[in-house]
Specification:
15 helices, mainly alpha
């Protein structure tokens, strides 16, 4: 199969998967609404927590309540887009360690993309709605503000996505890596929802290296409040590095993949 054949019709292929995933979720409409709604409620609880906190302390290391709300809008929205449109990312380690990649290897489409778009996280739709609600309340409602918010969401989505691809791809080298991947991504999520400037020394270094959550959590200050060019260039560079590096790491590991000899049908 030529490379041209592999990539021909790829947008239509991805769009079809997204439509089928959503249609499958909508077959159980009440469950869909409850699942997405509960995630939205869960996020609102954190807004209440920060609201109570800022009633006592108006500023946290230079961060105002609006900045923290936009941090949550970006983090929740970025995670939501990742989990809705590339919902199999969290299951990569399981698919690898149990030999379930066989069905994807047999198809004439890019393996990584095919795996990622094959599933949708319904609950994460609540995260997307939550992110846009926060922007509607606290964001800069101008064309420029909307463009900056869109760029912030894109950066957050790609950093989340390819970070989780990398930590799950360790399953190619160490077998069952589900526990490690889960803990690393939970750590990433936790750090992405706290103001970067409350961390100092080694903690701050960790946020911009091993667990690059700082490039997400600092976006309300370094992009939305005012464009800090060194930070923005660094965030774009890290996003590109993770995207290219994560893809390369997955395909390098794929050479070591051992088939599970499984004749399965995807649901």
């Amino acid at each position: 199969m030529s490379m041209g054949g592999k990539w021909r019709g790829l947008p239509a292929f991805v769009w079809t998967f997204w439509k089928l995933n959503l249609a499958g979720a909508m077959e159980f409409r009440m469950s869909f609404l409850l699942t997405a709604g509960m995630m939205l409620v869960n996020n609102v609880v954190w807004v209440f927590f920060w609201g109570v906190y800022f009633q006592r302390f108006s500023v946290v290391n230079g961060w105002a309540f609006q900045d923290v709300m936009m941090m949550w809008a970006i983090s929740a929205g970025g995670f939501g887009f990742m989990a809705v449109f590339f919902g199999n990312a969290n299951r990569l380690a399981q698919l690898i360690s149990t030999g379930q990649l066989d069905v994807y290897l047999a198809q004439p489409k890019p393996v990584l993309l095919h795996v990622l778009v094959s599933r949708m996280s319904v609950s994460a739709i609540g995260d997307i709605v939550f992110g846009f609600l926060l922007f509607a309340i606290f964001g800069e409602k101008t064309w420029l503000g909307a463009l900056k918010f869109g760029l912030a969401l894109l950066i957050a989505t790609l950093i989340f996505l390819f970070f989780i691809v990398i930590v799950n791809a360790f399953a190619f080298y160490m077998g069952n890596a589900e526990g490690l991947a889960h803990q690393m991504f939970q750590c990433m999520l936790a750090f992405a929802t706290y103001p970067t400037d409350i961390f100092r020394s080694w903690g701050r270094l960790l946020l911009f290296t091993v667990v690059p959550a700082g490039f997400i959590s600092y976006l309300p200050i370094g992009l939305l409040r005012s464009v800090e060019l060194p930070f923005l260039l660094g965030a774009l560079g890290v996003t590109a590095l993770l995207s290219v590096g994560g893809t390369w790491f997955f395909y390098r590991g794929l050479r070591r993949y051992t088939s599970g000899n499984m004749m399965t049908m995807r649901s």
